[in-house]
Amino acid sequence: MKHVALLCLVVLLALVASAAQALTITGKVVDPAGKPIGGATVWLHFRGPGGPYQWQPVASMQTAADGSFSLTDPSREKIRPTDAERYAVTAHKAGLALDGVSVSDPATPVTLTLAEPSTITGRVLGAGGKPVEGARVALTVGNLRPDPHSIRRYFIVPDDVSEGLAVRTDAQGAYDLRLLPAGWQAGLTVTALGYGRVRTQGDVRDRALFVLERAGSLRGKLVFARKPDRLAECVIRVYAPLHEGFLVQEEASPDDQGAFAFPELPPGSYRLSVEKQPSQDEHLVGVSRFTVTSGEEAMLEWGAQKTYPVHGRVIASDTKNGLPGVAVAFYFQGSDGSYSPKATTGPDGVYDARCIQGTYMVSAWAPNFTRAKDRPSVTVEVGPGQSGAAADLILDRARDLTIRVVDTSGRPVAEAAVRRGVDFAPEYVAGKTDSKGQFVASKVGPGLIKFWADKGSLATATSRQVDGAKEKGPITLVLQPGVLCTLRAKVIDQDGKPVSAAEVYVHQTRGDARSSDRAGLTDAAGAFVKANARPGVTYALEFRAAHCSRYTTGQWTATPGAAHDFGAIRLQRRTGFVAGTVTDEAGTPLPGVIVLNAGGGPETVKVTTDDQGRFRLEGLESGSAWVVAQAANRPLAGVRVEVGVGDVKLVLRPRGPAAMGPPPAPRPNPVPPEEAKRLARGMLVWQLNETNGPKNYGRELLVRWLAHIDSQAAFEAAAAHGDDAGPIRLELGKLHLADDPDESLALITQCGDAHYAARTLYEAAREYATTNPDLARRCVEEGLSIASAIEDARWRLATQAQLASELLKTDPARGAQLLAQAQTEASALGVADSDAYVRGVVAECLCERDLDAALTLVEPIEDQSARDRHFSNLTRHVARTNPDRALELMGRLSGTWARDGALATALPFFPPDQIDRAIELARGIQDQYQRSRGLTLLASVAPQDRQAALLEEAAAGLVGSGDGYRGTGGRAGEAAARVACVARRLGYTACEDLALAAIAAGARDGAYYGEGYVDLGDEMKRAGLLAFVAPDLARGMVESALTRGGGIAKIRGYEGSQLLSAACHVDPLWGVELLRQMPADKPGDDYGPRASAAVTVARNLVESPDDIESEILRSDYQWSWIPTDEDW
Amino acid sequence: MSKAACILLLAVLAAPITWAEPFTWVDEWSLGDLPTYGQVSVPLVSLKPPSLSALPTAFREVRCSAFTFYETAETKTTLAAVLHEPGGAAPELHVDANADGKLAADEQARVAAPDERPAGFGKPGETVWLIQLTKPHPRLVAFRLNPFGGLLTCALRGYMRGSLPVEGGAVDALLVEADANMRLDPGQDRLYLDEDRNGTFEPIRERRACPPRLGLAGAAFTFSEGRLFHEAQWYLAPTGDVPLRGVIAGLKAVPERIIACLSRAGGGLYQVASTDETTKLPAGSYSVESVFLKLPASDGETWTYTFDRREAAPPTEVQGADPVSLELLGNLALGVTYSGKPAPGQTLRVEVNVRSATGLTMTGCTKGQLNIGGMGTIPAKLVLLGPTGARPVYESSMGFG
Question: Fewer CB near the terminus (10 Å): N or C of chain A?
Fold first, then answer.
């Protein structure tokens, strides 16, 4: 027994000793010639789970005379493979540049080289462009040398280092920071008294001009129903993106009453978030926004939301036992990514937390476990009436697996890259072998995993596939010559000269897996070589060089040991430039103004004016370009110029008093009516004669619109093709409904499709409800009559309910009786798919009479997004009479995105005496696009003296809101263009400014993707809207798009139709010209692009621009309820 | 309808009170101030209708149209009308009134005198033509040009009257064949009911769509849908609630959830949410519109199926005091189609269409959270074999049955 106790003690001591052995990293600091540098300061940083910027210092020391250092992280024993690149060492000595390196193997000493620093210079200017003396300029972000293209390249310079190395501006506001080697990028922070603190986004190279505005302040209060118990731990964060490339990010702690203050905040639109919730029972959710204005104090109350319980268990898949100490995160299924409460499991694997009402995706992480592939997360509903019980989260046990890499003679190979993939996943480097040729792969769980390795020209012939559940290891990988393949290419410009430093991206495809990586740069001779291509993988290379068009090669599938030369790649150099100056109205140069080419693609070039207000945009395509200048607190200025002009003068005037005039007079169609009809008729008949084959959508459109101009010709065309004349009857009926109801109603009911006819009559009843109640009633009666012939019982029910809701206006008793019947029938429907849709439709019809009955229909709908949509529609109806109830209903929506959308559409329906409240609520909408929409639509119902400010606020927020991903710029640009259209109709006098805002907002489109493919759709949609506000501007955009897309004949599908629409809005005769250049539709093409285009052109010829604009403004679901013409 | 057929129908319905009476035919354009004709507008185009063997050679400027009338419920007759527009003279209308494919000299329509015109048919001053048809039935029809252009409008004279026996005394009823095709069509043709028994039919308030089924003062009337207009009859259908049990033949598992949506002829949707308990439904004729099923699978997951009606199906009569069983799905028929060349190494796209005996099509099939089926096609039980004799290269099964 004694021996056993002794043995236990020995083992225990050994364990303690092993735990006490902390991680140590050694190395040396030298100059570029290799001479040691003593007395340099060295820091060790660790990157936590918070993201690439979250480098935390863990140790520092001075180097010895021989330049050596030894840094220890007492909290960790060793660097695990997953910790690779989580450690970094930086060094600095006065007069020399900083250096940094990421650490993957602590056993390998690190060498840091301190070179001569390059200079980052610039100026800090304040109000009126005057220099700010004594502003503190500090380096806060630098990048790490070995991996300049990794997302982990940035590190935060520790505060004490940053403080110690900061410089101050001189009397001219100038600074000179000598801290980084040439070519590195820096993030700078400028702090100045009265201006607050402004940061760059980390991409300063050698020069940065700061133009500061007088700060405002924020005083806020956290509001809880019950006093929170952990207020002291809470940290409030505010964040605001300023103009391009600058941001503000500050933190503050609330006092014991929940009050907090930010005494100096640069002007901007801020978002609040919270670190560590101060209460379990109520949570602060990061949806609050506020605006800071120069010299003013903003006040804010941030109300916490009630939380509800959620609980569940995390178990191991093998033992089915609960796992203690596992981190569990709850992801709110809305757009508010900052709200994701966390919990940890107890001894029995059970977790218990509280979250605000909503739907959550729950995931768990534990060391030595992986998430089960068939159930990586579970979803749980949290809220009143919900149990909050989540299904079991299952984790698979994982372990380390040792991999040995040897050559063909069996000798271990050090520094070999070991790669790993799980079935379908693209390969990635798991790590490198140590000096013994060994590598430990961590977190190997159940499932098939492939390993392979390579070093230089050696590689494993095939991957080694192991079953993670059974394989105990170690496994051996043998490196062989003649396996890897070589890819070569040479990049030249149009003159045949080599293009050096062109970026090369490698696109790889293997089966369903694909990946794209930046592989490096071309050398001085323009050559690129990739020597480690793997057989079986299909490769394509993409080249990007400054001021050149991009180029992607064709594909090549690698075979063992083969080499492939893609040959000489000729990049077209874009040499166009535009230069000039930006001044104020007095001619004083304005420094720090953003100038960009906008709306003319293919890529946005953005620069900042220098001290003398000068700018130069380079890398433009030949032709003309829009040049837009943007500065805080001034309307945009823009001009269209020929590329190559060097003396462009842009004048940024101060923002004048917002002006609203009378609504503009109706605009006539530019083509005389008879001429327009003749042209439109000829074009439609010509297109109909070209349309053969079975009936399609395009042809139906053609005959319907021909009926507007010449019904006899439409009937002849339908008969000639053997098509049914029903759609023409319907069209004629709709067209003449107001002037000849008897004939029209008869034709509509004879159209041959009961559903179509009844829907048409319902829409007509709504349209004429106020202007012609008798006709509206007849439409309802006829509609109810024909609706009973709708074959599908669900659509019959939906249409009958809609008609009954209209009947309420003239025959309340019968309308109510029919609605009650519809309610009974709808409650018998299922809760998914089209049944759910019909439930929603009936609920909308019911809601103004009986909201509870409507809710009863909508609540059981299974699909969350469908339920949200119908709830959102109900809130709009309820907002007219009971805004509080509408807001309460919005609380039932599943996420912030849905709530934002519902709020934006419901606010304009608030009673007129609650307009202030509606505006404040609109300002609190988190999503920029929805906020802009809410403000614009509120402007259309607000008193005239408030309209201008609301419109400007709606447009201003959209500039720069696109985040660079494809579509976001387009969405912001379209929204801003809609603001401009609405503003024009309301009588706003500076619509050109808003049009420029739309161009600037849309400028961040991902203009290129794929091989030589230009995405013009969003750009042309924007142009189509702007044509109603600023036709010359829109004309330039369309001309540019035609040039870039290679002419209308090559621009197909959505893009082609948007371009043609935009051209027609600018000038219908231009549309006629473009239509003639379009290729004929293919027989059997159901959509018929040219047929649809012909209809677009015809409509623009014969209808008034105002009508077309109205229809487009209503055409988007998100904006569809925009007030009618009678409301303007 | 023959008496024998009528008796047979009554026997099938086997309801406590069932009788049928034909409505009476009235050969007039109007009843008091109420226009009682039906009308239809058809395109007037330069193409010769196929029903006409040739156009008279003397005609120069012509436009033609074709009207379809029903002779029996299944047999229809198409008559051609030709508008001859000689330059400088009044247009003439010629109608193939005997449906022989020729335009004889006596088949030219005459211009109606003011007192012959159907009330409200065309505006004063517009030309209205009249002609007596001999086929498919002797009817007087009126024609005019539609003011919107390119259409010829035809009005068919005559309406039907009758009365419906309900509590408180019979209600006068008037049938107007609004689409002028000589056939009763639900939703199209119109029924006026003198519900306030004041002896007149109010144009809007007392007008109904002619439904296949009509509830009125405790009685339910079934109109014979698709019958010829001039043979219109009604039957008093059974009323009261009937206990109904939904069943699914051949379903081995006990469903976790079931929602069947039934549509009652003449209007109304009803839900059956259990196969264990009966649901009380008003007597009538029902068809299954959709079935939503959740079934447990052997691996503990849940399968969800959605069946929807994509085609018409014969309805089931539900009546009487005893529980009635209604088959919701019945046996499932699997239709397997594939595209691509079935050879090793080739991609084969296999689609399985599942159709129930009650005429429903499976439109959704989901396991757990993963939707493996889309609209229309789902993988049922698939075993794709590799080269001859090789093991299956892909296998998938659904949990149904």
Answer: N
With respect to CATH, is domain A399-478 assigned 3.40.50.150? no
Buried b (16+ CB within 10 A) or exposed e, B65-86: bbbbbbeeeeeebbbbbbbbee
Cα–Cα distance measured from residue A919 to residue A935, given in angstroms and rounded to the nearest whole number? 7
Residues of B in contact with A723 (CB under 8 A): none
Rounded to 10°, the helix A928-939/A944-956 angle is 160
CA A473 to chain centroid, in Å, comes to: 44
In terms of CATH architecture, what is A485-571? Sandwich (2.60)
Q: Which CATH superfamily is domain A118-212 in?
A: Carboxypeptidase-like, regulatory domain (2.60.40.1120)
The tokens for B231 are 């043979």
Query: What's the rounded Cα separation, in Å, for the pair A940 and A804?
Result: 30
Q: Which two tokens stand for residue B260?
A: 């069947």
| ipTM of predicted complex | 0.82
Relative orientation angle of helices A773-787 and A793-807, to the nearest 10 degrees:
160
User: Which fold is adopted by the domain A24-116?
Assistant: Immunoglobulin-like (2.60.40)
Please indicate whether the domains covering A305-397 and A576-651 agree at the CATH topology level.
yes
| Chain B environment of A755 (Cβ under 8 Å) | none
Give, for A501, the enclosing helix (H) or strand (E): none
Residues facing residue B326 across a β-bridge: B246
Q: What is the CA radius of gyration of chain B?
A: 28
Strands A23-30 and A110-113 turn out to be: parallel
Q: Which CATH architecture has domain A305-397?
A: Sandwich (2.60)
Q: In Å, how far from its chain's centre is CA B36?
A: 23
* Among candidate residues A930, A1011, A941, the one with its CA nearest the CA of residue A975: A930
Residue A794: closest C-alpha in chain B: B269
Element of type H or E holding A395: strand A393-397
Taking CB atoms and an 8 Å limit, are A785 and B312 in contact across chains? no
The domains of chain B are located at 3-28+158-237, 37-156, 240-401
Cβ-proximal residues to B163 (8 Å cutoff; 6+ apart), any chain: B170, B171, B172, B173
pTM: 0.70
Nearest-Cα distance to chain A for B192, in Å, is: 12
CATH superfamily of A576-651: Carboxypeptidase-like, regulatory domain (2.60.40.1120)
Q: Which residue of B has its CA nearest to A829?
A: B261
3-state DSSP call for residue A27?
strand
Chains A and B form CB pairs within 8 A to the count of 126
Contact A830 B204 (CB under 8 A): no
CB atoms within 10 A of CB B376: 12
Burial string for B313-323 (b: 16+ CB within 10 Å, else e) reads: eebbbbbeeee
Q: How far is CA A789 from CA A109, A585, A758, A798, in A?
A: 84, 69, 9, 13
What pLDDT is attached to residue A428? 63
A324, A232, A309: which is closest to A278 by C-alpha?
Answer: A232
The two tokens of residue A688 are 């109909």
Structure tokens at A677: 């009809």
CATH topology of domain A216-303: Immunoglobulin-like (2.60.40)
User: What gap in Å lies between CA A834 and CA A857, rounded to an integer?
Assistant: 14
Contact (CB<8Å) B209/A747? no
Q: Which residue of B has its CA nearest to A791?
A: B312
Domain residue extents for chain A:
24-116, 118-212, 216-303, 305-397, 399-478, 485-571, 576-651
Q: Phi/psi at A920 (nearest 5 deg)?
A: -65, -40
**pLDDT (tens digit, 9 = 90+) per residue, A207-240?**
788 888 899 999 999 999 898 988 988 889 898 8
Q: In whole angstroms, what is the distance from residue A348 CA to residue A365 CA?
A: 16
| Tens-place pLDDT, residues B20-63 | 888 999 999 999 889 999 899 999 999 999 999 988 888 888 99
